[in-house]
Design brief:
Blueprint: E1 13-17, H1 23-31, E2 38-42, H2 45-54, E3 59-66, E4 70-71, H3 73-80, H4 82-85, E5 89-98, E6 102-105, E7 115-118, H5 120-125, H6 127-133, E8 138-141, H7 145-155, E9 159-163, H8 165-171, E10 174-177, E11 187-195, E12 237-244, H9 252-262, E13 267-274, E14 282-289, H10 295-304, E15 309-318
Parallel strand pairs: 1-2, 1-3, 7-8, 7-9
Antiparallel strand pairs: 3-4, 3-11, 5-11, 6-9, 6-10, 12-14, 12-15, 13-14
The structure holds 3-phenylpyruvic acid (PPY).
């Protein structure tokens, strides 16, 4: 856990994937002010969800997807469990962080390294370099890149980590190679999580979230939203939701996606994971431009309920995607 001694005890806290100097930590530091916020390191991404769900931290920062390596499946699988395990969690922001990876070790030469520790995402983002420089060496996935650096330091000669330059400095390792990521513009997108009060969670009481009854209202903010539509010039919002649909029904996914087209809502992403309720059935994560308090979005959500099961809005947040 890291915090500044001068902060008041009631300073808002930010849960991030620890130990210090992970990419998630660096993304969190860009988004939250260290002079006003406590930063609380967590061992796993699941611990970040738990810290926000239980209210032990006001904010959580979690990696969601990478420009070259795709979905962070650990995070998707935690969102999949949101209805039952984390019903109060909502996404209230996103932030993008340019990720550089280094090859760190106490071993003087790369060729003498025997084992390489890193996070699954980092291995995926450095495949080309790994295949040309350390092909065939043992790769061991650990909870974060900074944890990998800690282990490489503890184990000494023979062990290496793929982690940031900051982690090399923090853990006293030598940088044997830098910027080993496959793509020069390697960027990870992170979500900011917050806790919705119990009375705002459908089904109430902070227990399992019941299916949402969508009320269409232009005057009353939609129940369950922690943010409001953006108003600044050129700014826009996005919403992420998840649902399953009957895979025995021909066209069920097509009917669901057509709702967005019919309401003029542009999709910005679609991902899927096994539902874990039935073999070969899937949960879909759909992101689109719009805020859940906007009438067109409310209408779409009501329509979507006809074609889907277990629909849950995971949050609406301001679009921060870097404009290419
Ligand atoms: O392990 C880390 O440093 C993390 O924050 C997860 C991660 C790993 C690689 C790229 C982006 C995020």
């Amino acid at each position: 856990m890291s915090s500044l001694a001068s902060l008041p005890p009631d300073a808002p806290s930010v849960a991030f994937l620890g130990p210090t100097s992970t990419n998630t930590h660096q993304a969190a530091l860009e988004r939250f002010n260290v002079r006003t916020h406590k930063f609380v390191a967590q061992t796993t991404i699941g611990d970040i969800f738990t810290a926000v769900q239980t209210g032990s931290c006001q904010y959580g920062v979690v990696p969601f997807e990478n420009s070259t390596n795709g979905s962070v499946i650990f995070t998707l699988d935690l969102f999949r469990a949101a209805r039952t395990a984390y019903p109060n969690i909502r996404i209230t922001g996103e932030t993008y962080f340019h990720v550089h990876h280094c090859f760190l070790s106490l071993t003087p030469e790369i060729r003498d390294v025997k084992r390489i520790y890193s996070h699954q995402q980092a291995f995926g983002q450095c495949e080309t370099w790994i295949n040309s420089m350390v092909k065939g060496k043992e790769k061991i996935e650990v909870s974060s890149t900074a944890r990998a650096a800690e282990i490489a330091k503890q184990e000494g000669v023979g062990a290496a980590a793929i982690a940031s330059k900051l982690a090399a400095d923090a853990h006293g390792l030598k940088v044997l190679a830098r910027n080993i990521e496959d793509a020069t513009n390697n960027t990870t997108r992170f979500f900011i999580l917050e806790r919705l009060p119990d009375e705002e969670v459908d089904g109430g009481g902070g227990g399992a979230a019941a299916p949402r009854a969508i009320e269409i209202s232009q005057t009353k903010p939609r129940k369950g939203s922690l943010t409001h539509p953006s108003t600044g010039e050129g700014s826009r919002d996005k919403t992420l939701l998840c649902f399953t649909c009957d895979h025995e029904q021909p066209g069920a996914l097509c009917d669901s996606l057509k709702v967005f087209k019919d309401k003029g809502l542009n999709l910005t992403g679609i991902q899927s994971r096994p539902s874990r309720t039935k073999n070969w059935s899937y949960i879909f994560f759909v992101e689109f431009v719009g805020h859940e308090e906007e009438p067109a979005v409310q209408e779409a959500l009501k329509e979507l309920e006809k074609f889907t099961q277990d629909m849950m809005v995971l949050g609406s947040y301001q679009d921060k995607s870097p404009k290419n």
